[in-house]
Amino acid sequence: MGVLNVTPDSFSDGGRYLDPQRAAEHALEMEAAGAAIIDIGGESTRPHGAREVAAEIEIERVAPVLKRLGGRLRVPISIDTRKAAVARVALDAGAAIVNDVSALEADPAMAPLVATRKCAVVLMHMRGGPADHMKFAHYRDVVGEVEARLAARARAAIGAGVTASRIILDPGLGFAKRPRHSLALLGALPRLCALGYPILVGASRKGFVRVAAGRDPAALESATAAVNAIAIAAGVAIVRVHDVSSAVAAVKMAAAIKPANGGG
Ligand code: HH2
After folding, report:
1. Rounded to the nearest 10 degrees, how much is the dihedral formed by the CA atoms of 107, 111, 116, 120?
2. Is residue 206 annotated as a catalytic residue, yes or no?
3. Would you say the pTM of this structure is higher than 0.85?
4. Residue with the nearest Cα to atom 18 of ligand 1?
5. pLDDT (mean) for 159-166
6. Which of 4, 71, 79, 171 stands the most exposed, by the fewest C-beta atoms within 10 Å?
7. Which member of 46, 149, 205, 206 is catalytic?
């Protein structure tokens, strides 16, 4: 899943793709580099200093990009939003996936929308909102608590009429999580996969990767690729990334390695 942030303030690429033409070109570049999904977002959710934006502003940012992409992308488009009004515009413009970092909790109109449009949905684990989630980064058993919460959100979505086979779960690395929490969740991916839903992981360039790799952009990309390879080897279905070519190489490599006893 290639990230397309149409925002002025995203933590790693804020402002680069605010121009709709440039954003659409970047989506096509990511597809050419091997992205299987393009995730378009008009609101930053970075841990410090993200500003919540009104639905109209999010729509003003993403709609021109969706319009330019109309019919030009072969891969599905995902809309990264917590707001039903934004998701509706994107679904009308051909998006196939709603990526909701609030797991359908921020907007009561989101679950019915996803259910009636029969689109896929990413339910991500977070506590609080984009502006204050780090206040809630306290856990006794981060893996158990995230696992239980994701299972509960999947049940709630199904209760609202969403088909189970359209649900993707995401532990929400970096969202209301200190680096040690994100690392513990990465160490427990097989347990999250055992919930029975495809798992999505978004590690790309995040703070816990910076802790290991430092700020050097090349090292950060290599460390991100390492996390992605490990995630795929652990059974994760989708990795959300800024740099598609390094992710595609990592994913292909991890997927090519067969578990022991696999013959020869
Ligand atoms: N991470 C970000 C945004 N959306 N969605 C899912 N499902 N999982 C994630 O881990 C995730 C996400 C944050 O990254 P980015 O989009 O690069 O930054 P920003 O939120 O500052 O735009």
Report:
1. 110
2. yes
3. yes
4. 10
5. 98
6. 71
7. 206
